[in-house]
Every structure is written in C-alpha cells, then in structure tokens.
Design a protein that fits this description.
The chain contains twelve helices and nine strands. It has 280 residues and is an alpha/beta fold. The chain folds into two domains: 200 residues, Rossmann fold, CATH 3.40.50; 66 residues, rRNA adenine dimethylase, C-terminal domain (Helicase, Ruva Protein, domain 3). The strands form two sheets. It has a seven-stranded mixed sheet with strand order 4-3-2-5-6-9-7, with helices on both faces. Strands 1-8 form a two-stranded antiparallel ribbon. The longest helix has 14 residues. It is elongated, with a radius of gyration of 21 Å.
Length: 280
C-alpha cells in the first residue's frame, strides 16, 4: 500500500501543508492494529476527522458498517477518490468539521458512532472537547495525537500532566493510551512521536451535574497551577479566605490542596457547593 499511495500522491502533484498538520501513515499493519484497538466492528458507524490520503479510512471501511469522513483539504479529493474507490460504505465530506452544526451532523449520521481522528496539535483540544461536551450520539473516540498530549489526556490527578482537558474528558468517559507511534511511521516525519488514545464514553459515569458550572470551577482551579485551590477560588470568585475554607471543609478537601489534586468527583462536589451558596 505504501508505494501505491506515494505514487498516487506524486501523480496528483500533492504537496503537504504544514498549516493542516498533514502527516500521513501508510503502514497497513499499523493502521489495521489501530482499527483493531479502536474496537470497530461491522456493527459500528465511524466518523473520521482528517482523512488525509485515506489510508486509515480504507482500513476502517474494512471493519465498520459505514464510515463518514471529513477532510478540510479539497486538494485531496482526487487522491481519496482513487484510494477509496473500492470502499462503497464510505462517504467523504470536504468541509471543516469544526464549522459544522454538530446536531445536524449527528442527524445525518443517524445512529451511535465512534469518532476516529489523527489530530494536529492546534485542533486537538477544540475537537475533543466539542464532541465530549456537545455530542449526544457518540459512544467513543480513538484519536492519534502527539505523545505528550496523549499523556495529558490520560493523566491521573496529582501528576504534572493532569489539567483541565483531563478533567473534561473524565467527566464523561475513561481514557487510555492504547498504542505508541514512532515519528518514523509518518510521511513526512514530524518532530515528535505520537500515541493513540481511546476514550470510552460512559454517560452514566456520574449522576446529573451542571456541566457549565464544573467547567467554570475547573478553569478557575487551574488558572494558576502554582497557587493553591483556595487562592484561585478567592481570586476567581472574589471570596474571603474564611468563606473558601468553609467551602473546602464542606467538601472534605484540605485547605492547602491544589487544583491538580482534585478528582472529577471532587470538582462536581465543589461546583455543587458553590451553586448552593449562590456563588455560581
């Protein structure tokens, strides 16, 4: 497949665009392994973001019931037409998925789906959080990102990699790294290694909570990582130290705790208490 795809790219005069973060994987064995670890079966519908030369798309089409692909670079159209010519269960849309109405997009898909994407750094957080917070029919994600980003997405509380996006993901699902991908597998090779993160959506993971309130509290807690949670709450909500100490005591948190030490459950309890007190 590798030489064939390279020939198709060359024949069509394709040039890689750094602005789109274009680094393609051509190794069939690796691509097949990614699809396998994603758990895609003939019962699954897949939404792929960033089809590139269609190499992963083709492997997905072999396992999935249907594949909806989004690709922002229209110059890849003749290439995808050739590489995916035998994939009758695949539909490619040449648009920026971030500019699509997510409700309308899900209506077109028509059923539960798995999101699969090879994401450049600059759109990793916006795409993941848009689907985590707003998608209603998503049942999982499999995203290839820079290794250091993958470690942040899957970090545990109390570690330096743990941050706002980690909490955002964990409120709705469980994330784990399922594959490490050396930079040499990409064409052209990027400057960093990558990793594949699998996120299993669990809509019943926590009981009902105010997502906007939790997001607000998380943003405040991480507004200055060097400061304690108490100091960030004082500054963020214009509270007195006595008020903050009372709040932290109520939710069984130490007065010197920092934001990165809080679990998702802690953030929910803290936001509920701030709502009860009329602060949020």
């Amino acid at each position: 497949m590798e030489n064939n795809v390279k020939n198709i790219l060359y024949k069509n005069g394709f040039s890689f665009k750094k602005a789109f973060g274009q680094n393609f994987i051509l190794d069939t064995e690796l691509l097949s392994n990614i699809v396998k670890k994603a758990g895609v079966t003939e019962k699954d519908v897949v939404l792929e973001i960033g089809c590139g030369a269609g190499t992963l798309t083709k492997e997905l089409s072999k396992s999935a019931k249907k594949v909806f692909g989004y690709e922002i670079d229209t110059k890849l159209k003749p290439i995808l037409e050739e590489t995916l010519k035998d994939c009758s269960n695949t539909k490619i849309v040449f648009k920026d998925v971030m500019k699509e109405n997510l409700k309308e997009l899900e209506k077109q898909i028509g059923e539960k789906y798995i999101l699969v994407a090879n994401l450049p750094y600059y759109i990793t957080t916006p795409i993941i959080m848009n689907f985590i917070e707003n998608a209603t029919n998503i049942k999982g994600m499999v995203v290839m990102v820079q290794k250091e980003v993958a470690e942040r997405l899957t970090a545990k509380e109390g570690t330096s990699d743990y941050g706002a996006i980690t909490v955002g993901i964990s409120l709705r699902g469980d994330a784990e790294i399922v594959e490490y991908v050396d930079r040499t597998f990409f064409v052209p090779p990027p400057n960093v290694d990558s990793a594949v993160v699998k996120i299993v959506i669990k809509d019943n993971k926590f009981e009902n909570f105010n997502r906007l309130a939790v997001r607000n509290v998380v943003r405040t807690a991480f507004s200055s990582r060097r400061k304690t949670l108490a100091n960030n709450l004082i500054k963020g909500y214009k509270l007195t130290r006595l008020e903050v100490e009372e709040i932290l005591t109520k939710v069984n948190l130490l007065l010197n705790v920092r934001g990165e030490e809080l679990s998702s459950r802690n953030f929910i309890d803290l936001s509920n208490t701030l709502i009860e007190k009329g602060i949020l």
